[in-house]
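Before the break, one more example. Copy the sequence into your notebook; we will annotate it together after we see the structure.
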Amino acid sequence: MPQRTRLPAIAIALAALCLLSPAPDGAHAGVIVQSDMTQEHRAQPGERYRGTIVLRNPGDTTAEAKLYQTDYGFDAEGRNDYGPPGQLPRSNAGWISLTREVVTVPPKGTERIDYEVKVPSGDQLSGTYWSMLMVEPIPETSRESAADLPEGTTSVTQLLRFGIQLVTHIGSSGETALVFSNPQLVKENGKRLFAIDVENTGQRWLRPSLWLELYSQSGNPVGKFEGAATRLYPGTSARFRIDLGETPDGNYLGLVAADGTGDNLFGANVELEIK
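Here is what the structure looks like once it is written out:
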């Protein structure tokens, strides 16, 4: 596949912003997922394949969990959407059949839940399709038992759901494309970060790793700053952040590049005013 390089010009003035990160969830569950949280398979239209989810109960008493499907989407603003299964254009939820929807796991034991994926036939499919399988532990204290509480008291149960991403790639088909937007400077934990939104406008998922190459106005290299890789499904976006370290204030030319693996290389020229 030929190398794909896109270099739109983006002129920006960086301003300091403060972003708050959510606190971690401290909930505990009687059932946990022991298998991979992302299960991907490559298949052709009309094919069937099977997969397995392994649940473990680390506790001393029998535990239960219910399983159900949702769609899954997210964007650069931090929104996550777990909508009804089969609503997104690239949802594979309707292809998936579960052997069980309620599972009982013995103490200190495990349970396997098999699923089957039947890929529709025809030549209209291309790229990546996905959905989410939710595993939600069932608390020992049911809603009905709350009626036995003394008058004026309330029982609060905190649950932690596990989301397993079930991904189907139609062979190696599907175009790849990334679009860059909204470059800015943010401050997090005392660090100055360059941030830019990246959207997957193609048909196949990518896990691009991002970096920024800075140059002086005369073209002399200033440094290369690397960011973390993030998975992007088609139609989703994420905000990538790159630590600028101790880069002095001033005007810079830059190249933001994203390596989508293989021959997929995407980029954007930027002009930075750091002050």
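The domain at 9-20+175-274 is CATH 2.60.40.10 (Immunoglobulin-like). DSSP finds no helices and 19 strands in the chain. Try to locate both features in your own notes.
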